[in-house]
UniProtKB/TrEMBL annotation:
Protein family according to the UniProt entry: Belongs to the UPF0102 family.
Lineage top rank: taxon: Bacteria
Protein name: UPF0102 protein MU0050_002916
CDD domains: PoNe_Nuclease
Organism whose genome encodes this protein: [Mycobacterium] wendilense
SUPFAM superfamilies: Restriction endonuclease-like
PANTHER family registered for this protein in UniProt: UPF0102 PROTEIN YRAN (PTHR34039:SF1)
NCBIfam families xrefs: PRK12497.1-3, PRK12497.3-1, PRK12497.3-3, YraN family protein
InterPro entries in alphabetical order: Restrct_endonuc-II-like, tRNA_endonuc-like_dom_sf, UPF0102_YraN-like
């Protein structure tokens, strides 16, 4: 049995989240975008509605830390909003809409990862 580091688990979760988004028809604009105030895990574009989607990815190997709703408390949502604003300010174009989503990836031992996708948390 192989033991994964926290970084490896997180990277796998982000990759599964990106694949999920692409399967929904979203185009990935950036991954792990950083500025001095923090990081946005995934930035994607929903082309049909010209909506930019900022995605927080939470990867879990068990249920010990609660569900997806508990994983992103109000202070985290505020930080995501601020980071989204910073990213948007640096763009040369405008978007018709924006949305903040949370994708939970639960990695089990014997099956494919389970994906939970909450749209429009903010």
């Amino acid at each position: 049995m192989t033991t994964w580091t926290r970084a490896q688990v997180g990277a796998l979760g982000e990759q599964r989240a990106v694949e999920h988004l692409q399967g929904l028809g979203l185009r990935i604009l950036a991954r792990n975008w950083r500025c001095r105030w923090g990081e946005l895990d995934v930035i994607a574009l929903e082309s049909d509605s010209d909506t930019v989607v900022f995605v927080e990815v939470k990867t879990r190997t068990g249920d010990g830390y609660g569900g997806l709703a508990e994983a992103v408390p109000p202070d985290k949502v505020r930080r995501l909003r601020r980071l989204a604003g910073v990213w948007l300010a640096g763009q040369d174009r405008r978007y018709a809409g924006l949305r903040i989503d949370v994708i939970g990836v639960r990695i089990g031992r014997r099956r494919d990862p389970e994906i939970s996708h909450l749209q429009g948390v903010a």
